[in-house]
Known about the structure:
Shape: globular
Mean pLDDT: 97
Structural class: alpha/beta
Strand order of the largest sheet: 4-3-7-8-9
Oligomer: single chain
Number of strands: 9
Number of domains: 1
Order of helices and strands: HEEHHEHEEEEHEHE
Radius of gyration: 15 Å
Largest sheet: 5 strands, parallel
Bound molecules: adenosine monophosphate
Amino acid sequence: MEEVKALIRDIPDFPKPGIIFKDITPVLSNGKVFKKLTDRLRDRYQDKKIDVVLGIEARGFIFGASLAYALGAGLAIVRKPGKLPYQTFQESYELEYGVDSIEIHKDAILEGQRILIIDDVLATGGTASAAVKLVRNNFQVDIVETVFLIELCFLNGKEKLGDTDVFSLITY
Ligand code: AMP
């Protein structure tokens, strides 16, 4: 994964002062590395009988779609409010200032399915823990793991995910 790490670009003070944004677009535009990364995740999960990969808006859609394809699994999406056209379940979570929420279609996953939740970056864990709650509160399914390309360990996001298994390809 050193090749992936070498391509991740730090953008200081984006989108606001004090944040070092991990820009993964150079990973996506390198076909060989993007394929290796997808194959690495496929190898980890191919024997785990994953039914649906659940991608978190927006970069989770990209890695979720490539992994779902590689596993022959379905793709479900968790989106910001007002984006999904059909009936939804919602979950709210706290931001540094204020609250935000995420939504999923009521029929996005089915009872008994085995789910992987994926996003590009685990930072404070607010988004991912809201996604876990959204799934747990509304569906009788098995969350096999939550998976991230990048984990910012110094923000302790894992703690918010409680007993959910977490796997991160690259840690800082
Ligand atoms: P959090 O809820 O704090 O764990 O933030 C996770 C979400 O925000 C993910 O969807 C990430 O894409 C995005 N994010 C948070 N911090 C960063 C960062 N330093 N670089 C890139 N994306 C980030």
